[in-house]
Amino acid sequence: MNPVIVVHGGGASSISKERKERVRQGIIKAAEVGYKILTEGGSAVDAVEGAVAFLEDHPEFNAGCGSVLNVNGDIEMDASIMSGKDLSAGAVSAVRCIANPIKLARLVMEKTTHCFLTDQGAAKFAAAMGVPTIPKEQLVTERNIKRLEKEKNEKGALKLGFQQDLGTVGAVALDCKGNVAYATSTGGIVNKMVGRVGDTPCVGSGGYADNDIGAISTTGHGESILKVNLARLTLFHVEQGKTLEEAADMSLGYMKSKLKGLGGVILVSKAGDWAVKWTSTSMPWAAAKDGKLHSGIDLHETSVADLP
């Protein structure tokens, strides 16, 4: 089985010219990180964790050190990961002062009998596992401080349904043994209420993985994604015989028509096919397979290059 990895950097209304090249290089590098893990014999879980952790460490993406701020100016991060081999999954929500929530989610999956830990419970578990804490200041960027100020000044009150930047990062992979996995991580929505949790840590909404079908990671307006269970809905369409592209178009179209919710998905099938689809203006993505790297940001934009 030839390994495959697909990575996304979240949906957005637009990405400024100043940021676009940094975002492009970041998403490409994340795919290269994950693909290298796969080609060296690593598992799909290893690959998606590695790719997403790279993006959590990159300040241009809304996860980890690039996470947006809540109404109080604090960071609360969500993440989830799942193995399609046995449907094992781990998730965390509302975690603070941790560099890589996706790594903590994997520890939940592998070191507990639970699927999901939140807030103080997740923090206590992280401490028990020896996960280091970092000062809040290391996660907060000047750009996100300005974004919060702008959001409050322009809107006054919280209007989650009209967010322009729907940032999340995610990855899906198929390894050489035929196992699939997904990982998704986010800082949430700018100016969100304290304790708000979106789709990202919720298995079936933020992502899903099953060796009998494939794997998916989602991005977009979290409340809308939760209401339609976007990840599992898309894979149900695949189970019913739709192509990856058809399944993605159907589920994203349903969410948009029912809720006016925008979003995007990346998928890999059990056979190694892959797809990227979104209804927001743009979605940075990259896919690596057979020594080729495919990438893009805007609709109808695809670049292909040889992998290093």
Explain what you see.
The protein is an alpha+beta fold and 308 residues long. The chain has a single domain, classed as Glutamine Phosphoribosylpyrophosphate, subunit 1, domain 1 (4-Layer Sandwich), CATH 3.60.20. It has helices at 17-39, 44-56, 101-111, 119-128, 142-155, 222-228, 230-239, 244-259; strands at 4-8, 11-12, 77-83, 89-95, 116-118, 165-166, 169-174, 180-186, 207-210, 214-220, 263-269, 274-278, 282-289, 292-298, 303-306. The strands form three sheets. A nine-stranded mixed beta sheet has the order 5-4-3-8-7-1-13-14-15. A hairpin with a 4-residue loop joins strand 14 and strand 15. It is globular.
Structural class: alpha+beta
Distance between the termini: 21 Å
Query: For the record, what CATH class applies?
Result: Alpha Beta
What fraction of the residues are assigned to beta strands by DSSP? 25-35%
Helix content: 25-40%
EC number: 3.4.19.5, 3.5.1.1
GO cellular component, one term: cytoplasm
GO biological process, one term: L-asparagine catabolic process via L-aspartate
Keywords: Autocatalytic cleavage, Hydrolase, Protease
